Amino acid sequence: MTAPSVNSRTAAGGEALAAFRKAPADAVVALDFDGTLAPIVEDPTEARAHPGAAPALARLAPLVGAVVIVTGRPAALAVEYGGFADVPGLQVLGQYGLERWADGELTVPEPPPGVAEARAKLPAMLEAAGAPEGVHIEDKHHALAVHTRRCAEPQVALDRLRGLVEALAERTGLHVEPGRYVLELRPPGIDKGLALRDFLASRTPSAVLYAGDDLGDLAAYAAVDALRAEGVPGLKICSGSTEVTALAEQADVVVDGPAGVVALLEELAASVS
Ligand SMILES: O=P(O)(O)OC[C@H]1O[C@H](O[C@H]2O[C@H](CO)[C@@H](O)[C@H](O)[C@H]2O)[C@H](O)[C@@H](O)[C@@H]1O
Predict the structure, then answer these.
(1) Is residue 6 part of a domain?
(2) What pTM does this model have?
């Protein structure tokens, strides 16, 4: 067995790592996709997992109770862009938990009517507001994401469009999910914390490890905190970036982007092989 080298900077995180190593077969490893397993790129359709991600997940999956990806992406897209179809037993909770992919089967509910209304109104609203060059809409069927990464000043553009997107969300009964140079209009009543809790409902995990990089992952961090309060060891891992610092402030372990996450997954697998 390789000596464990993942270290937590908090006592609670250290307890979770010890619980993971003691009973890996009952542990749950949950991960975000963009920014955590896949490096951030300008065009969302060109995002692909780090080349070491699928091999690391495939090595870890047979050793633990479950590996699950919790993402704002449509679940099938995360599987495709990740190259994850052959990771044994992998499950993907897509669109913040609305969709589930497991054993090659996809479960997708109908989007609420507000999404169609927002789809019809958003382009004209952006044009009328004089949205800066580079703003683009990603249509995820159940949600619409307004991206500003390609703008000359992405944060300025995002701040300028926030009020417009919030007003449209109010009119259409949708929720605004902010992220890395993106504002998403998505159905209310879901988030990554609820998705994670729902996934765990039928399990008694020895430990829950969650890795994320963006604001949408804070709900999953809160779920890990709640699990800890209930006596379930939990580890919060941050895929660090200069764009979002809120997760690093709360995390037990901070690594350097997707390459750091892949190295951590390899180390976890080695520590229980
Ligand atoms: O929950 P996640 O897996 O992290 O997905 C969140 C959103 O990620 C994507 O946008 C982000 O990644 C893009 C590609 O690297 C980047 O261009 C963009 O600036 C980032 O915000 C995705 O496009 C969204 O649909 C996801 O909801």
Answers:
(1) no
(2) 0.96
